Amino acid sequence: MAQTDYGAGLTSGPVIEAKGLGVKFAVNRRRKRSLREMFIHGTKRDPNAEGDEFWPLRDVAFEINRGECVGIVGKNGTGKSTLLKLIAGVLMPDEGEVHVHGKVAPLLELRAGFNDNLTGRENVYLVGSLHGMTEKQIDERFDEIVDFAEIKSKFIDTPVRHYSSGMKVRLGFALISQLEHPIMLVDEVLAVGDKAFKRKCYEAIDRMLANQRTMVLVSHSERDLRRFCNRGLYVKGGGLALDTDIDAALAAYEEDTKAEIAERKKRDAAKKKRAEEAEKQIDDRESGEDGADGGRTA
Amino acid sequence: MASRALAVWEHRKVVGLLVRRDLKVKYQQSVLGYAWTMLEPLALTMVYYFVFGVILSADRGMPPEAQAYGGFVLFLVAGILPWTTFGAILNEAPRAMLTHSKLITTMKVPREIFPMATVGTKFVEYILTWPVLLVFVFALGGHFTLMGLLVWLPLAVVLTFAFGLGVTLFLSAVNVLLRDVERLVRILSRLLFYGSAILFPASMVLSSGIPEWLKTLYQLNPLMGIFQMHRAVWFPEFAELTPSTLALTSSVVGSILMLIIGYWTFRRLEMSVLKEL
């Protein structure tokens, strides 16, 4: 098949290359700004008026070789998913460039492309074809997909809008895990499904990794990361802080989290103290003002 | 640019899939399915014939000899059917990217294919209006001419969809960043409906007493020429019903320009659009 050859025919060079990668978001300008906002609030009343640019990611550079499984760790909102989207090619960088050699199977949003009004069967064919599977390939694997997704045969010809959210996600995973693209991008999708299904997902991913495929995984689950990944990228404050093995990356992340919690506790304590003092002052002043008022009316 | 065109070509199958999906969803949800595509313009034609033909007697703009070839009714049908398609394109253009946001943010495909699929769906629906049109042609005694079928028809169809694609590329990108566009387009489509002389022969405007510059302006609307072509298919021998040189030029140049502007805007805004979806 064309897709498998694509990856296998490649020489030993890196599969994913990122150089000086940066993405910028305009905070106040052009951002979902309807005419109403433009006319009613001027720039003065805009809360984000100062600094109208925000870089969720900047100066990120790395290379990922074939067969590697890389975990991306970091706090919420540090640009992990943005990074994954850049690799997937669904977001264009404002700075630098990213090269991906080979087709990408995006396990980013499992229900993507499912149309609620079409049946499960029609959706499998539609989304499978959108991802580059031929009709024959889907024919061959259809039973396997439905079986994996644990969807009873009587429901497969029911419109997807009647499916439970779990069913949709299972069907999506079952389908995308059948793709033979050499690169997989996974964003938190392992957090879905019940325990039994999760185990099946793990097995499927293990199987996919076994034949020299490359995976980039974003997750908050240390267990998942340790289980699959051999390398870790620690993203911090919009930049790449560490590029080591997964244990070191997780350790650094852990340390920073602890430091932050300690910091916050300290700040809370300080704030409390300040608040108490302020209250005291107000009390003092109020009693003073009462006296003054009394004096004026008199 | 060339590599981009190649990438779009490679994804032509995806366009086909999206078109087929849209048609499937549309027709399986309603009982009457295809019948709706015909009923709506039919009802419109009846209403407009009554108001414009009988009450306002807009048919006086038709040359009397045209009566033999289908007359005012065929003139109305031949204009309203393509307008229904074009109006639908205008209507859906602003949402062409928004409705696919989930796909766009997870799949790496040339983004142009989504507006193209929207226009493609409308093209198929346009083809589906042809049986209705042919019924009218045969019932009213419309005639087929080489000039009509080989010159005006291809020109009209190509220009309508070139213009439609340009508009869709433009609106679909702009609307992601500026949601007001959707409302604006609704008003605009009303204006264009009357501005493109769908319900009365354009010659009525041109021979009326309005100032000369206004007539020129009127002919500069590329849609006016395009929709005159749609009718000229059935009335090619009447000078009043075929586009003037000015109207012809403005519709050809206007369509090409719209396509270029639409594509340029789309590519220009692509980065911001991806961030907003």
UniProtKB/TrEMBL annotation, chain A:
GO terms (molecular function) for this protein are: ATP binding
List, for all copies, the residue spans of the domain called ABC transporter: 35-262
Q: Region Disordered: what ranges?
A: 262-298
Question: In what ranges is there compositional bias, type Basic and acidic residues?
Answer: 274-285
Query: Has the keyword Iron been applied to this entry?
Result: no
UniProt superkingdom: Bacteria
Which PROSITE patterns does this chain map to? ABC_TRANSPORTER_1 (PS00211), ABC_TRANSPORTER_2 (PS50893)
> Where does the chain cross the membrane?
none
Pfam families given in the database record: ABC_tran
Question: What's in the keyword line of the UniProt record?
Answer: ATP-binding, Nucleotide-binding, Transport
Q: Which InterPro entries match?
A: AAA+_ATPase, ABC_transporter-like_ATP-bd, ABC_transporter-like_CS, ABC_transpr_TagH-like, Bact_Polysacc_Export_ATP-bd, P-loop_NTPase
Q: Which family does it belong to?
A: Belongs to the ABC transporter superfamily.
The record's PANTHER family line, in alphabetical order, gives: TEICHOIC ACIDS EXPORT ATP-BINDING PROTEIN TAGH
Designated name of the protein: ABC transporter ATP-binding protein
- What's the source species for this entry? Streptomonospora nanhaiensis
